[in-house]
Design goal:
The protein is of the alpha/beta class. The chain has a single domain (about 5-255), classed as Alpha/Beta hydrolase fold, catalytic domain (Rossmann fold). The protein has helices at about 5-10, 65-75, 95-105, 105-125, 140-150, 190-205, 240-255, and strands at about 20-30, 35-45, 50-55, 80, 125-135, 155-160, 180-185, 210-215, 230, 235. The chain has an 8-stranded mixed beta sheet with strand order 1-2-4-3-5-6-7-8, with helices on both faces.
Length: about 260
């Protein structure tokens, strides 16, 4: 069982530990000749459970994303933290932007690595492959939309303060997932013009079931307790963090009902 800092435990403990407990630990996997190290958490017992792919922010697989997997396991999901970067890449904060930008410049590689992690989730014996979702934070929020744009058979995607990229013209028609975007109204990474362009892109595919929830005054990274750089537009917001998690739970309950 992973030991977390107090500020992460305070968030984790909002979800009660089930009577049977949860099973969790690091997961090593290989795809396209590259070694990766993710993290899995699920309820104790055989399942199968709805599977949730969790995609990290630009720091890679950290205690934050592990904690979110543990929260999902407490809710009855089998959660798997994808490792987009590779097992040997855990950038320091000052290097994270450069590492993440490499994937923005090579969306084919980005999507390939997301697809590999999703395939691992589908093959996990504790997962019901007919009931899956993907959630992500910052870089990960953008990532789950990239996964959806591949046409992956994921039932739902949830972006927490992700960058709102559009795709090539017409690509939105490949999205089959239901979409929930949880967005900070004061997020400079995804300003109003980016939000409008993102919405207009989704409007080109009327069959997509999508919704965007915007939180007043919330900056980028509003769910991360350690985010404290308002001069760069990134700041933890306890109210938006709590409300966005509640919105995700309601959304997933509806999707998997």
């Amino acid at each position: 069982m992973t030991t977390y800092a107090q500020n992460l435990n305070e968030i984790l403990d909002r979800e009660a530990l089930p009577a049977g407990g949860v099973v969790s630990g690091d997961v090593d996997y290989v795809a396209h000749g590259v070694a990766f190290r993710g993290y899995q958490a699920r309820p104790a017992g055989g399942g199968p459970y709805p599977g949730i792919l969790v995609v990290h922010d630009w720091l890679g697989v950290t205690d934050y994303v592990r904690m979110r997997c543990d929260m999902l396991a407490r809710l009855g999901y089998a959660a798997f933290a994808a490792d987009v970067y590779g097992a040997d890449m855990r950038p320091a904060p000052q290097d994270a932007a450069a590492v993440a930008s490499g994937f923005y410049q090579d969306r084919a590689l980005w999507r390939q690595r997301l697809a590999a992690a999703f395939e691992w989730l589908l093959a996990e014996p504790s997962v019901d492959p007919a009931r899956t979702a993907a959630i992500g934070y910052c870089f990960g929020g953008t990532s789950v939309m990239e996964l959806a744009r591949t046409g992956a058979p994921v039932d739902a995607v949830v972006s927490f303060h992700g960058g709102l990229l559009t795709g090539p013209a017409g690509e939105a028609t490949r999205i089959t997932a239901k979409v929930l975007v949880l967005h900070g109204a004061a997020d400079p990474v995804a300003p109003d013009d980016a939000l409008l362009a993102f919405e207009n892109d989704l409007r080109t595919a009327p069959e997509i079931d999508w919704q965007i929830v915007t939180y007043a005054n919330a900056m980028h990274a509003f769910t991360l307790p350690d985010a404290n750089a308002p001069e760069h537009g990134a700041l933890f917001d306890a109210t938006a963090e709590r409300r966005s998690w509640t919105a995700m739970k309601s959304f997933l309950n509806e999707v998997f009902d």
